[in-house]
Amino acid sequence: MSTITPTKVILRGRKVVGGCAEGEALVTRDTISGWGGIDPMTGTVIETHHELRGVSFKDKVLVFPGAKGSSGWSAAFHLARIANAAPKAMVFNVMTTKIALGAVVTRAPSVTDFDQDPLSVIQTGDWVKVDGDRGVVEITKAEVTKKA
Amino acid sequence: MLDGAEGPARQKAMDLLVRYGEALGAERFVDVSNIAGVPGSSTLFLHNYYKEHGGGSFEDVFSRFDLDSDETVPFPKVGGNCCHLQGGMDPELWAEQGMSLEAFAHQQQDEAEVRRHGIQVLKTCTPYLAGNMPAFGEHCAWMESSAVVFCNSVVGARTNTEGRESTSAAMLTGKIPDWGFHRDDYRHGTHLVQVDVAVESVMDWGMLGYFIGDAVQENIPVVVGKLGQPDLIRHKHFGAAAASSGGVEMYHIVGVTPEAASLEIAFDSKKPMATIRYGPEERRRVYESLNSNGRDANVDYVMLGCPHASIEQIGEAARLLAGKKIKDGRSLWMFTSRAVKSVADLNGFTKTIRDAGGLVMTDTCSAIGRMLPKGTKVVALDSAKQVHYLPAIMGIEAWFGTTEDCIHAALTGRWAGELR
Predict the structure, then answer these.
(1) What is the pLDDT of residue B223?
(2) ipTM computed for the complex
(3) Residues belonging to chain A with any Cβ–Cβ distance to chain B shorter than 8 Å
């Protein structure tokens, strides 16, 4: 008899913004521009050559390398929060002033400095719980593994 | 300040800066007196949102958006050398830009509030061309990625890419997290860029910046090779492009920029993390990438002045347009600061451009103000940064080339630029 067990993975990192949130992961290997790179009203990535162009991060757990581009990064994500189009949580690798301030004013639980690369571990569609205060990210893989 | 002894606004500002500093992992603050941001400004959307949720006054927007506070607090006068960067529309040509009287009146109110709180109205992305030039080693808190990279790299002053909320909080507190580019050990190069193709023109410098930003992302490039001596305009276009395609906040050019007297000094005697080559093939690919949004050679709008034009650039445009006429149905808008425009007026450049059918505008640009001449489908641009943003923001086609290519397109209505 075979059972289906969902795979769980735990990542440990450092608190950026406290609080807890969970949701479906949206993963990109491209850095994200705030102002001029997203539409804050819908949370959609608009940058011309971006792999997520046309995709919205609204209510997702956004997993990405980090921020780039305009100093309007924080204000764009802040506006997305006001428009109810912000990500539920953020998981990222590279610390910059843009993303630090952006995560703070988006008020989204956020973690960085992980023991493993979240971009390798997490896939779009995985269910991700972010505990900002403890710096713990729990991933439930969307693809379940079959065990005999 | 955090205990509220200096009033509720400074308390809220300090609370935000502490949360921001903790997010960064900073251990202390550094004193800053040169601060450039966009305090309290709001689009009609933001203004109306807060109006429907408790109050839409300047103080409401400043408290709740800039200071990320859940309540409105009285906003005292700021200290230090604080300035307001770019705004949303030209103070005289707003109707030509398609702005409503309501939006203009709102903008005028915001501007009066900015002045009343002791913040200089510079209304530009190039404060260093409009009266705020920091000194070597000065700690600043600046927004505007193109100004930040100029401040660190060309001037040798020290700022991170701050955001609206952190600059507004710094205006009240005179503090910013002591992290990143404020610290000696953070300012050294990480990546070596070997340039094997001649880089001379402003367009060449823009393309090289765009290539490097994409290649190094938020790292610090050290550039060596076949480079002419860059002037201010070349630095401006190079840095703006590198800060758009990536997140470059500082670069070194050996023998040119002030913290790169030699390769060893630029890298602090460490080995580069990677070496990147820029040759003819890379140059061609950047050109194609920057022109990938262009299909229709029928150009209806030429936008110049990104980052805001220097007096020399306005003079060059005037020389190229003197005695000529922009083709019917086409528009040419050139953006600059109010300070530089007053010099352009004095020298007759504004009139020469106007006589040819173009307009010199201030405060904003097509991307910041989300404004185009009516019916624009195809734009021609001489800025890699603007090509990066404008087609994505406004959903139009764009061509990238030299200032001459762009002015030629304005005069003929056709794009004829090519990689030379």
Answers:
(1) 98
(2) 0.93
(3) 14-17, 31, 36-37, 46-49, 65-75, 78-79, 82, 94-98, 100-105, 110
